[in-house]
């Protein structure tokens, strides 16, 4: 058995940020990660023909100017960034499948643009009135949480094209769920977390910059600084806890700590058995959350051919298989890369297809934007997080109808010695790496401000943790139920 001040479960951005801040304060920290790598939903992989491989960011990758926490840690770790390519015109594919070039304004009729403007104004006003960390406090929150975002939009606007376009930005593009599957309140929180709905839909804001070498360099650098405090391949199956601290089981190994941080998505907390069990409200809060589904597709070509045609590589299409696409070429790279996204019900459908047929349909959708030149990439890469047990989807979790007001507050509530957190429960930066950094720093601050009592210093209904730990060493390891 080992003993520590704090044990952190999960070596994503939240867990590693919390661990690093605690280690900087002189605390004895142990990080346990079930995977064989750090980074969680951040990952950079090499793909391509031998000798011509290139790095592809499989998970999150962009940095926006409002993401102060992420920018701060990038500066602290001395990780440089570069701007996303955005020169030239963008593309918009209409419902008939025709691609239209445009500059600042979508190529839609005046009445539809006016309707989009009015919906944007309404969402901006709601977002401005909301604290994204406490969305249930918004006036009329209960009503907004009882109606789907799609139904709310249709009540606000009788222009179906305007509705489809606004729904795209929060449904498929952000929460990666169809707009009928989450509430209007959840949509407003998504907008408020980015500062406004206008920020959320502005690709030049939300997708501003990238990190040289990939955004996974943040957790990789933090893990390097933490050194042997980070242990991989450590799947926690049981947590025994009381007010004194927690005992964590990993196979036959046992670790005890005065504080425990569960830095995993809410849905993955359920993989762990607790003794005593979590209170019903904690369990229900996590059972009513789910990941969205999205397949991130990247196609690399000999050259960024679209640039020669005066195109930025940016495209949108509410009705197309690939609903949005961007130039994803790394700075200084001669080859050109496009990144696109297939989400929610469309991700369900093509996820069932054989690999070659799925690739054919995705490239066919890219060709709808860019023509036949898009059909022949030299490298094609898919990231499908829904088939990874230790994630279960992307980009993050959100509630079903009514869940945010009923259980949202429970997600961040500490339980005895246990703190919970990930980007899924952030206010500002919700579902983004920025949110993960913020939550990690908030958890570390709460632990440091609250102090750390000596392990086993008091007794409570759960028993003395030192005695529990010693008893656990004598028992057979408990598997996951």
Automatic annotation (TrEMBL):
Cofactors required: FAD
Stretches assigned to the Amine oxidase domain: 14-448
One Pfam family here: Amino_oxidase
Annotated positions binding FAD: 14, 33-34, 236
InterPro entries, A to Z: Amino_oxidase, FAD/NAD-bd_sf, Flavin_amine_oxidase, Flavin_MAO
Enzyme Commission code(s) on record: 1.4.3.10
Keywords carried by this UniProt record: Oxidoreductase
Domain of life of the native organism: Bacteria
Broad EC category: oxidoreductase
Positions annotated to bind substrate: 341
Molecular-function annotations in GO: putrescine oxidase activity
PANTHER family found in the cross-reference section: AMINE OXIDASE (PTHR43563), AMINE OXIDASE [FLAVIN-CONTAINING] B (PTHR43563:SF1)
Similarity remark: Belongs to the flavin monoamine oxidase family.
Protein's UniProt name: Putrescine oxidase
């Amino acid at each position: 058995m080992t003993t520590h001040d704090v044990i952190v479960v999960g070596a994503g951005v939240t867990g590693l940020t919390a661990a690093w801040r605690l280690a900087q304060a002189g605390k004895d920290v142990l990080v346990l990660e079930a995977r064989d790598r750090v980074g969680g939903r951040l990952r950079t992989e090499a793909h391509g023909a031998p000798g011509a491989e290139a790095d592809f960011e499989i998970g999150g990758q962009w940095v926006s100017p409002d993401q102060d926490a992420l920018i701060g840690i990038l500066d602290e770790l001395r990780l440089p960034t570069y701007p996303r390519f955005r020169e030239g015109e963008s593309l918009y594919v209409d419902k008939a499948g025709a691609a239209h070039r445009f500059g600042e304004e979508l190529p839609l009729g005046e009445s539809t643009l006016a309707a989009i403007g009015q919906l944007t104004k309404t969402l901006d006003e709601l977002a401005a009135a909301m604290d994204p960390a406490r969305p249930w406090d918004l006036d009329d929150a209960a009503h907004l949480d009882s109606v789907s975002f799609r139904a709310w939009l249709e009540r606000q606007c009788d222009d179906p094209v305007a509705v489809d376009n606004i729904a795209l930005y929060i449904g498929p593009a952000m929460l990666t769920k169809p707009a009928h599957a989450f509430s209007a309140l959840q949509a407003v929180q998504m907008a408020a977390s980015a500062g406004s709905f206008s920020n959320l839909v502005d690709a030049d804001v939300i997708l501003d910059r990238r990190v040289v070498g990939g955004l996974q360099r943040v957790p990789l650098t933090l893990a390097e600084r933490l050194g042997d405090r980070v242990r991989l391949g450590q799947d926690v199956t049981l947590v025994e806890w009381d007010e004194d601290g927690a005992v964590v089981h990993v196979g036959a190994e046992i670790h005890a700590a005065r504080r425990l941080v569960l830095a995993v998505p809410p849905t993955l907390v359920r993989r762990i058995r607790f003794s005593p069990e979590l209170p019903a409200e904690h369990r229900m809060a996590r059972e009513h959350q789910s990941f969205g589904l999205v397949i991130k597709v990247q196609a690399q070509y000999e050259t960024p051919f679209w640039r020669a045609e005066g195109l930025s590589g940016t495209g949108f299409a509410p009705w197309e298989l690939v609903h949005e696409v961007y130039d994803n070429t790394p700075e200084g790279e001669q080859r050109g890369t496009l990144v696109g996204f297939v989400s929610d019900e469309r991700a369900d459908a093509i996820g069932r297809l054989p690999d070659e047929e799925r690739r054919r349909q995705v490239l066919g959708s890219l060709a709808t934007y860019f023509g036949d030149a898009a059909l022949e990439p030299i490298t094609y890469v898919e990231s499908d997080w829904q088939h990874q047990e230790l994630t279960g989807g992307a980009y993050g979790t959100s509630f079903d109808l009514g869940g945010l007001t009923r259980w949202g507050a429970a997600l961040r509530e500490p339980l005895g010695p246990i703190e919970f957190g990930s980007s899924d429960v952030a206010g500002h930066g919700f579902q983004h790496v920025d949110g993960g950094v913020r939550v990690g720093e908030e958890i570390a601050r709460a632990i440091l401000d609250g102090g750390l009592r000596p392990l086993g210093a008091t007794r409570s209904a759960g028993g003395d943790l030192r005695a529990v730990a010693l008893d656990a060493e004598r028992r057979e390891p408990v598997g996951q139920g």
